[in-house]
Amino acid sequence: MAGELVVGFVARSLALISDAGHMLTDSASIVFALAAMSLAVRPARGIFTFGFKRAEILSAQLNGATLVALGVFFLIEAIRRLVSPAEVEGGLVLVTALVGIVVNVGATWLLSKADRSSLNVEGAFQHILNDLYAFIATAISGLIVVLTGFVRADAIATLIVATLMLKAGYGLMRDTARIFLQAAPSGLVPAEIGARLATQPDVSEVHDLHIWELTSGYSTLSAHVFVHPRGDVSSVRRSLQKLLADSYGIMHTTLQVDQASRIATGDVGCVDIAHCADPHGPHFLSPHD
Where is this protein primarily located (predicted)? Predict the structure, then answer.
């Protein structure tokens, strides 16, 4: 990174300088990822009843934010260079970028073997992968400058780098925002799950259904279930937990299962008047009642 920054100023290459800035965030992203992993494995205690698992999501969001901020900065600078191009030493740019490609291929390969289901690890991987793309674009721009003298190629390469940074950063911020807002995990449809739970034997009603991710890959569900007056509460709870684990991969469930005093019908609306007056989530009636 330091070498690239020095060469970038000497060669007057915005593409190399933007790459160096990106590499700075690469280093920071790996530091953040390692620190977040260390926090995430700490046991729950005191007021932190969930532990520090969301430290990984904070790290991923920070990585996304830095990518977006740097992407915007270099996008503006690239547009300025397109309007007022500066002389660029294409040979220095080409050699430095080729060295960078070799280094980043190795780094990308190492991180590709990690568990990228974690948004934290994915954030670090996206930084390194985008830096590899950036070096390729920079090498091409250096070659064009050497062969043709077209110095605006440097600014065009910077535009490509900035666009890649914005794309990766936006994706990370979108995915982490989904978790912070406690939206249902991607691929899980609460309405579909709730309706299916309500169709199970002896289930009269399902309400207050909530599905969210504590951290990436850690799906959680809670719901209030009313069982038919003649049904077995314990048996229904076990069957619903098995259904959620087998069909949807949701292993962390909290089900409040109560015996219904009467059967819910479409006319009545629900078996618990208190919950009808103060709903806390989606409401599903059994189609069999």
Answer: membrane
Look at strands 203-213 and 219-227 and give their pairing: antiparallel
Sign of CA dihedral 46, 47, 53, 55: negative
Burial tier of 18 (Cβ tally within 10 Å: 0-12, 13-18, 19+): buried
Residue 235: alpha-carbon gap to chain centroid: 37
The yes or no reply on domain 190-285 and CATH 1.10.238.10 is no
Tokens of 88: 């660029």
CATH class of the domain at 2-180: mainly alpha
Indicate if the alpha-carbon torsion angle 249, 252, 258, 264 is positive or negative. Answer: negative
User: Please, are residues 212 and 252 in contact by the beta-carbon 8 Å criterion?
Assistant: no
d(CA 132, CA 139): 11
Q: At which residue do the structure tokens 């969930």 appear? A: 50
pLDDT digits (tens, 9 = 90+) for 85-105: 878 888 888 888 898 889 888
Residues of the chain with CATH 1.20.1510.10: 2-180
- 224: tokens are 């209030």
What does the radius of gyration of the chain's CA atoms come to, in whole angstroms?
A: 27
Phi/psi of residue 221, nearest 5 degrees: -140, 140
Q: What are phi and psi of 253, to 5 degrees?
A: -125, 145
Q: pLDDT for 11-66, tens place per residue?
A: 888 777 877 777 777 777 778 778 877 888 888 888 888 888 888 888 888 888 88
**Does residue 55 contact residue 40 with C-beta atoms inside 8 Å?**
yes
CATH 3.30.300.30 residue spans of the chain: 190-285
Return the DSSP state at 281.
S
State the Cα angle at 277 between 274 and 282, rounded to 5°: 95
Task: Give me the sheet containing 252-259, strands edge to edge.
Answer: 252-259, 219-227, 203-213, 283-285
